[in-house]
Amino acid sequence: MKRAMRFNKGKPKYSLMDLDSFEPMVRVLEFGSIKYERDNWKRGMPVTEILDSTLRHIAAISRGEDIDPESGILHVGHLQCNAMFLAHTLKNHPEWDDRATKVKLKGI
Length: 108
Hints:
- This protein is an all-alpha fold.
- The protein has one domain.
- The chain has helices spanning 23-35, 47-62, 75-92.
C-alpha cells in the first residue's frame, strides 16, 4: 500500500506535547475570560507586567503555595498563561516591549 504524501519537514511536532498538562492553563484562560473578556490578552500588554506576574507566581510556588488564592487554580496554570502571553506579545506586539534592555533573538 502506498502512503499518502505529506510535506511536514521542519513543521512543529505538537504530538510531543502532553496536552493534559495544559489543563491548568485552560482553566486560567476560562477564569480570565470571565474576569476580563475572551481573548483580552491577545491585545498585548507591557512585557514588564507579564514578567512581574510570572515572578509572583514563581515566588508563590517557591514558598510552597500550589493554588492561587484569587482564582483557585494552580499557579502553574498562571505560569503557562504568562509564558504564552509573553511569546504572543513579543511576536505580535513589539510596541508593548518596555524592557529596559533589549537584545533581540532570532525566531521571535
